[in-house]
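User: YibL family ribosome-associated protein, Photobacterium gaetbulicola Gung47:
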Amino acid sequence: MNLNQELQSLNNRLDKLRRKLAGAQERGDQAIAGQATQEIETITKRINKVKHQTKRQLNKKGSDVKSLAFSRPLTKAEQSDMGKLKKSVKGLVVVHPMTALGREMGISVVTGFAPKEF
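Assistant: Predicted structure for YibL family ribosome-associated protein:
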């Protein structure tokens, strides 16, 4: 299970537990409410841990991409025929500003990173 799937399942469990807690408090059932609060705390900690892991992986990937020797914004013509561009430039990594990696790196246009000039 990758981190995104794990995060989604944890959020689903947290949502169910919050509804369970609300129902238990409405009924006045303190035992179930106490148990649900403990489970909510543990799941919240796990969610924060998974989010931190994803952020760390994203930072590592961003630094790996930034360490490539050459980078430049891609023209609209190059973007339209991305397959041809990737075949012609060995080791090309294209980063779009709307992806998580692009937002993390702070780029504003579609940028290509490669070990050699292209």
